[in-house]
Amino acid sequence: MHEVGMMQNIIDAAVKRAKDEGAQHIRLVQMRVGEVSGVVADSLQLAFEVTKKGTIAEDARLQVENVPVVCYCSNCNIEFHPNSELNECPECHQSYCEVRQGKEFELAFLEVS
Ligand SMILES: [Zn+2]
Question: Which runs of consecutive H residues, i.e. helices, occur in the chain?
Fold first, then answer.
């Protein structure tokens, strides 16, 4: 389950940020997770439970904001939401267009005390 390793980075960053602010506890960890980040929501929650143990985030809740995929076609100069993994442009049908949004896996917000 690669989510554990990814979540470990998030927890490390969250703990560092909280300590820099002089906080003793993290109450809430809010993340932005893209639709094509390759992360499964259930696994993420589980990874969170595992990695927060023994840290100042032990009692924290996890809140995930899902970020939809947005692709960009340079031929048509449009942004669109792809219907398949081919990221095909709905206008000119070019495949594998640039993914501009949707790969996020990042810390968005912390609530500390
Ligand atoms: Zn196009």
Answer: 3-20, 41-52
